Amino acid sequence: MLARVLRGGRMFVGDEVRQCTSSIPPISSVWHERIAGVLTCVPAGKRVEYRQLARLAGVPKAYCRVFPKILSKLPPAVASKAQPGTVAHAHERWTGEDLFDVFKNTSGLAGLNH
User: Fold this and answer.
1) Is the pLDDT of residue 108 over 50?
2) What's the pLDDT score for residue 11?
3) 9 lies in a domain?
4) DSSP letters for 33-96
5) Is residue 22 in some structural domain?
6) Contacts of 109 (CB under 8 A, 6+ apart)
7) Fewer Cβ atoms within 10 Å of its own Cβ: the N or the C terminal residue of the chain?
8) Which 3 state secondary structure label does DSSP give 11?
C-alpha cells in the first residue's frame, strides 16, 4: 500500500487514520509510471539526475540502468528532463525538494495543521 504522510510522528494502535481528498493524483504502484510522473513535475529549464529520479520515484538505484529504455517511450520534452550523470550547471539541477509538499500543492487539506 502506498500513502502520502502528511505529518510525521509516531503512530500507535487505536490512532485515527483517515483518507483525505486531494487534488494531487494518486501515486502509481507501477514503477515506470512513477518515473514518468516525477519527470512531468520537473520545472522548465531544470534537469534531474538518474540517481535522484530513482530516489524520488521510490525505486532502487539499480533501476537507473533501464531508464534509457523507459525514457525512449516518453515524449522527448519529458524524457529530456532526465540525465544519466551529474547535471553540469548547478542552477539547472532539480532535486525535487517540493515534489511531495502536499500542503503547497493542495488547498483541500485546510483542516489539517502543519
Assistant:
1) no
2) 87
3) no
4) HHHHHHHHHSPTT-BEEHHHHHHHHT--GGGGGGHHHHHHTS-HHHHTTEESS--SSGGGB---
5) no
6) 6, 20, 22, 102, 103
7) N
8) coil
pTM for the model stands at: 0.71
The Cα-based distances of 97 to 55, 57, 84, 104 in angstroms read 12, 13, 19, 12
C-alpha cell at 14: 487505536
Q: How many domains does the chain have?
A: 1
Range of the domain at 61: 31-89
Q: Is residue 72 part of a domain?
A: yes
Give the DSSP H or E segment for 105: helix 102-105
pLDDT digits (tens, 9 = 90+) for 37-95: 999 989 999 999 999 999 999 999 999 999 999 999 999 999 999 999 998 898 999 99
Residue 93: beta bridge partners?
A: 47
111 domain-assigned: no
